[in-house]
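REQUEST FORM: STRUCTURE PREDICTION
Request ID: SP-0412
Submitted by: Lab K.M.
Chain count: 1
Length (residues): 372
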Amino acid sequence: MKNIFISCGEVSGDIYAADLIRELLKISPDTKIWGMLGTESEKSGGLAKWSYEELKLMGIIEILPAIPRILRLKNNIVREVMKSNPDAVILIDSPDFNLILARSLRKSGYNKKIISLIPPTVWAWRSGRVKNLKRDFDLCLPLFLFEHKFLLDHGVNSLWKAHPLVHDLRDIKISQEFANRFSGKKIIALMPGSRHYDIKFHLDILLGTAEILRGKNYCPVFSIAQGLTKNLADNLRERVKDSGFDYWEGGGRELMLGSLAVAGVSGTVAVESMLLGRYMVVIYNMKRITHAILKCLVHVEKISIPNYLTDKQLYPELLCGDAKPEKIVNELEKYLLDSAIKSEIDSGLNEAKNLMGTDNAAEFWAKCVLKP
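STATUS: Completed
RESULT:
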């Protein structure tokens, strides 16, 4: 019986882990899959010995107080992995934790396969981590073709077929419930994120955006992300309701598909929006000191992946002080009210989508993991 350890640290990583687990169990049904996982991974057949909630942290200043706890977590995981000696270790995203975990496993004598699924964005910042990938990992499985090419150019073993969302989003449809509830309304999807940090620093901005949109006869609808903890989901729901706005809990992807356009926090949602053919205003706010530190470290000007896939600026990015309700609405209406701009952006979205591959990425990942 195969024994595979997986570590993921946030909602998107949990979704990718769940995709991988389903495909692994299709190929090898008796495989034991365990590790630091989330609810979606457990639904797919994984055993969560630790919750991915342990790593739901964001920012630089915000992480510092949690370092002792995270190091204890890492040491506990290393002990369990060495005791179980799995056939493969799959580390998904969360590089600040998973790169350290991989190094500790190697130092502890683990000599079997370690794979980085969604490796760190060394093309964007902290390129020195390439040496970690070359030294501690047998294989990297990136999400994007340009990442794959970058890794190969820097001597890292990398394989790529497609982005998993291409397969995941192929059957997304508008449900009858959604159609009945929002029929005839000019929906703008507002995506406040899936982490406490995201919601803390962006909800007020999006509530202000919703107020302006409502005054212009649009129907702003907030997404209550399905991966939120109960307390966070409850608090978000109450804030939205108390402000007099509608929300949708049936899945952010369906909400975006049913909308005219999207505004929300930078992240995987921008890629989903692109694949669904929806324009998005990308926002990101953070503490000033965190922003100042990142400006010194990051070597790219854009934060949204769709803006890297072609030579066009598909999505406006409003960061920190620029992420204001009036500016968000202005960017939305540039697209919604100008047919020439809309046509050009829609063409760019289609071009970017075509660079995402067509295969079932999760099936490809599973075959790479199980390959001797």
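NOTES: The chain has a mean pLDDT of 92.
Reviewed by: T.R.
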